[in-house]
Predict the structure.
Amino acid sequence: MDIPPFEPDCIDSSLPGLWRYLPWLQPYNQAGSFITLGEGWTPLLQGGWGTRNVFWKLDSNMPTGSYKDRGVSVMVNWFRHYGFQTVMDDSSGNAGASLACYAARAELHARIFVPVAAPEPKKSQIAIYGAELVEVEGPRSLAAAAVVAALSHEVGYASHALHPAFLLGQMSVAWEIWEQLGGRAPAWLAGPAGNGGLMLGAWRGFEMLAHTGLIAKLPRLLVVQAQGFDPLHKAFEGDYQRVKPIPSPPTPSVADGISIVDPARGQGLLTAVYQSMGFVTSVNDDDILSAQREMASMGFFVEPTSAATCAALTRHMDVLAEDEDIVVILSGTGLKNPPLV
């Protein structure tokens, strides 16, 4: 993508949300023509986890309740600019809800393919926006295959896993964190990885800041996966340079948002982890649910995918020095997949 160098003087704080960074979104959008629901510029709250200093980046506070609104808003503006009337994607729920929402805002038709086993609140959210909900029997990979089979020249493949405009929108989280920390990067950036777009987009956003000399050092990445859906973790543990898909679908994880066996952005994210001198880990369902309850006791109701990152912090306290600050991206609200109580 041909993106101009990052210049702080070009940030326009009068624009809503992430659109304060419009000059760097210009490859896909023109000033004054974009549609928005105010996505982005989410709070960064200082707190703690155990004995560690943590900043919580509340991307769960987005219009549809997940970080996907960053990339989807930029991507839908791209499809709208090029005259598409129908957009399609596959999803475990969050990306589908976001695409349904922004397609409705842009007066486009959305067709979303989801596994039958996707959480009911997520499927209901997709449907209420007026999108066509297509439920596919079997694992998530079959929903992905179904959307590819249904594509035509007239339909835009609004893939949150593959489209470059989605990744561009996700880069904005790094620029926000940099601004909110007073013009610096944290020592660590932690978050979950399914297809890998959240953390890879953030990494590339910080790379832009480094290339223009706005930060002296890039953050180390702590990338978290769910056990059984952890091809990045397996590659990292083996010190491999390639990410191999999980050969057969395992038992479903409570962290449905990262239950991906063949991550589309896996190779790029693994490279970023190595470059950052960070690491990849995986956590089990019991630890995820325990962390979700602990987060709720602090006032943060997050879905299991977000809680997975918190569980990883608990497991790896010995790696995270007490004098190093950590930014944790809370990727989705607990209302997306509420626990049974």
Summary: Strands lie at 44-49, 52-58, 86-90, 109-115, 132-136, 155-157, 188-192, 220-226, 279-283, 326-330.
